[in-house]
Amino acid sequence: MIDIKFLRENPEVVKQNIKNKFQDQKLPLVDEVIALDEERRSVQAEADSIRAEKNKIAKEIGALMAQGKKDEAEEVKKKVAESASRLKELEAKQPELEEKIKTIMMRIPNIIDESVPIGHDDSENVEVERFGEPVTPDFEVPYHTDIIDRFSGIDLDAARRVAGNGFYYLVGDIARLHSAVLSYARDFMIGKGFTYVIPPYMIRSDVVTGVMSFDEMEAMMYKIEGEDLYLIGTSEHSMIGRFIDQMVDEQSLPLTFTSYSPCFRKEKGAHGIEERGIYRIHQFEKQEMIVICKPEESMDWFNKLWSYTVELFRTMDIPVRTLECCSGDLADLKVKSIDVEAWSPRQQKYFEVGSCSNLGDAQARRLKIRVKGEDGNKYLAHTLNNTVVAPPRMLIAFLENNLNEDGSIDIPEALRPYMGGTEKLIPNK
After folding, report:
1. Buried b vs exposed e over 224-256: b needs ≥16 C-beta within 10 Å?
2. How many angstroms separate the CA atoms of 359 and 355, rounded?
3. 48-100 pLDDT, tens per residue?
4. What is the DSSP string of 282-324?
5. Order of strands across the sheet with 202-203?
6. pTM exceeds 0.85 for this model
7. Contact at 8 Å (CB) between 240 and 383?
8. Using CA atoms, how far apart are residues 174 and 159, in angstroms rounded to an integer?
9. Cβ-count burial of 72 within 10 angstroms (0-12 exposed, 13-18 middle, 19+ buried)?
């Protein structure tokens, strides 16, 4: 959500930003907000004027009563009664206008950074840099569930019977590998100076609307029936929500956290064969990184965050690349975003395994996360988030890139302490 003052003073900038995101249907919202804001300020001014007049008249009544002019005082009191009725009407109208403005403002996309490439959708995202040499083995790389099945490591049929499509059982060495990757990612980020946190896995609606757009909320979130609670789609939601309505001391910034959680997503729509199995699912686990910082430091942190993900994947012998998200692919609250994609030897292409986002002050404005500066001034914090690692999806990249022709899986040195020293997984089929 952008600043109403900025929108009021720069309506054409806001409209151009909407056009850059190819959301022209939202253009009328700008003029609608300006009209409502003008009405709100007019109501506020009239209400303030009536209050000032009431105070003035109250003093007059006191003076008249002191002079014994009771009849004149009674006449003046009638004027006060008339103005009180109008004031009550105005005071009832103010919150209605404010709520209308807030609802519309939450639909207007945040101002994207000037460095963001203009494009309609993810097909127009721009490759930035590659890390590691993509390898194409001499042997055929099986589909990821076939690789896992050689280790008796997956049971999709039972998961469908228990929960339906989009769920899985991981078993044995594969389940251990899944947990090992998360533990390694946790310690990797602790080593970078981040504080480890396990947050709530459910959040209230005021937090949901504070951390994401209405469109994202509808597409992603599962609601708990009969309660004001939603299952989180990522731990960023509850991690940023932790600071709702809080005043943060400037000296404590930046706040850097790495959080673990299961994640729950609707993932509506049909998907191709490569997105089945454990690629696009309703439930998965993730290690996340979150930063709350001063506005002038957010872009530096943005570049640090995605570089940490690249570094982590390279320690597991997985080639990756970074992809700059174009304007049309950015969610409404995001200022700038970079995806990290891993190389798939099977598909001979890269696929997304993480996303780094700078949200500017959008989440802080919605959640009222303020910073008290050393000079006493208050301002909104900037928030950022990035995927450290999100198995089981990243397991696809891990298995394909560490697969040997005999079906065995090499365990990179960095991961061996979390696998009991195991250097290689041997299939049992």
Report:
1. eeeeebbbbbbbbbbbbbbbbeeebeeeebbbb
2. 12
3. 888 887 777 666 656 656 666 666 656 666 666 667 778 888 889 999 999 99
4. SEEEEEEEEEEE-GGGHHHHHHHHHHHHHHHHHHTT--EEEEE
5. 202-203, 230-231, 222-223
6. yes
7. yes
8. 16
9. middle
